[in-house]
Amino acid sequence: MPVVAVAGGTGQLGRTIVDALLADGSYDVIILVRRANPTAQKEIGVPLISVDYANVDDLVSTLQSHNVNTVISTITTLGDNEPELNLIKAAEKSQITKRFVPSYWATDYS
Question: What region holds the NAD(P)-binding domain (predicted)?
């Protein structure tokens, strides 16, 4: 099955997308996170992969080692677009990743 990585998949929108992908049953899903959270991983039931959004090479390695075909970004980009830009660069450099869905859904919850 194609592997879909959801960046920010533990947040509100990201979790909704993860749940929809899992319900479809046509994809293997992983979630890219800034910090490991074993409780969330157990609750959601898919691997949570800790990544450094400041390191493009690390992101490329993660995408390739997990055979990620598609990246869906739901990371918050309010004020700092560097994490998403680096994720885009990594997806472009990856020899496996073919699709990237950028985050247009940043919400200011304050």
Answer: 8-101
Angle (CA) 43-41-34 rounded to 5° is 135
- Is residue 67 within 8 Å of residue 61, measured between CB atoms? no
Q: Are strands 28-33 and 68-73 parallel, antiparallel or unpaired?
A: unpaired
- Of the candidate CATH numbers 3.50.50.60, 3.10.560.10, 3.30.365.10, 3.40.50.720, the domain formed by 3-101 belongs to 3.40.50.720
**Residue 110: is its pLDDT beyond 60?**
no
Quote the pTM value: 0.91
Would you list the domain boundaries of the chain? 3-101
State pLDDT tens for residues 86-109: 999 999 999 999 999 998 755 555
